[in-house]
User: Fold this.
Amino acid sequence: MDAVITEVTTCDCSLCTQRNAVMAKVPEAALTVVQGADHLTLYQWNTRRAMHYFCDRCGIYVFHRKRAAPDHFGVNVFCLAGFDPQSVPLRATEGLGMSIEDPLARPEWPGPRV
Assistant:
């Protein structure tokens, strides 16, 4: 990953809460899978816009393409070698109360915009 991480986030939606995710938002161009792509399993639900990737061997959640910002990925910071999540601020985000689909969203930004 080639991005400067200035904060990490948590989310209170059911999926993030269950996987205890702490995420870093990075631009699409900053994330390159250099090995193990053949072990990534895709999980989608609801609008099927967000794409959540897990390791098919150990089940660890690795990253996801964001529904509300499809040109960014959310990366599980615990998968980043040498990164200390406590070195940057932690911000809680709301996912539990987000609408499933935003009827006012532009086609290129289909997710809820909070």
